[in-house]
Amino acid sequence: MTDAAQPPAELEGDDLTTWSSLATVLEWLPPALDAQLQRDAGITHFEYGVLYALSRADGGTLRMSVLADYANSTLSRLSRAAARLEGRGWLRREPDPADGRYTLAVLTDAGRAAVATATPGHVATVHRLVLDRLTAAQARQLREISRRIARAVREEGGWRPPAPGER
Questions:
Q1: Which residues is 63 bridged to in the sheet?
Q2: What are phi and psi of 155, to 5 degrees?
Q3: What is the DSSP letter of 106?
Q4: Strand, helix or coil for residue 135
């Protein structure tokens, strides 16, 4: 007798079709987002995410460790991106006055302007490639499906936008 909970040895049928569709999106979407942001703002999607998260944080400031967690990044990858953004004058790093063992990433006024400039093109691309392709019901389903998958990968989940009126 076989265990019904045991997955098959290989993907086939609907499972293969579903997985290959998702895997294709996972491969194709990031370079498409990078291409638009590189062309329009000279930054990667990862760098945009760093700037965006800081622009939404209180005082434009987050601990680097928190920012790395939001970005699902190692501190070294985030540090390299922060150095590039610092070189452009868009953020600065400084010791956390509450605990000097931590480093803060602080969005500068120029960084706030850069994210504001980059956002309309990014939003248009997200709409063109994803949101405008879905009905409202499909968008809700995608949101719930994505949350479930994210929780299966990392129980604590990632960054979530504040609810309306929370900010």
A1: 104
A2: -55, -35
A3: E
A4: coil
| pLDDT single digits (tens) 58-87 | 999 999 999 999 888 999 999 999 999 999
For 38, the token pair is 């590189």
Neighbours of 128 (CB within 10 A): 12
Among 97, 139, 127, smallest CA distance to 32 is for 127
Q: What is the pTM of this model?
A: 0.86
- Report which secondary-structure segment, H or E, holds 93: strand 91-95
Residue with tokens 């005082």: 59
Q: Give the least confident one: 3-7, 15-19, 38-42.
A: 3-7
Measuring CA to CA, which residue among 59, 70, 55, 45 is closest to residue 94?
59
CB-CB neighbours of 84 under 10 Å: 15
Q: Can you list the alpha helix ranges (DSSP code H) found in the chain?
A: 13-41, 45-56, 64-70, 75-87, 109-129, 136-153
Tell the residue number behind the tokens 């968008």, with chain if given: 139
User: CA-CA distance, 60 to 108, in Å (whole number)?
Assistant: 8
